[in-house]
Amino acid sequence: MHTLQQSYRGLSLLADINMDRLLYIGAIGAALAAGAFIGSL
Predict the structure, then answer these.
(1) Would you give the distance in Å from CA 41 to the centre of its chain?
(2) Which residues cross the membrane (predicted)?
């Protein structure tokens, strides 16, 4: 049971780290898309 709890905590941390990276990539993509839209006007 202890091993299961430790692996769950590690998996949760890994998911949190990857979610943070996905948010950064999404924010950069949205900024680029907004810049391209404004530049095309």
Answers:
(1) 30
(2) 21-39
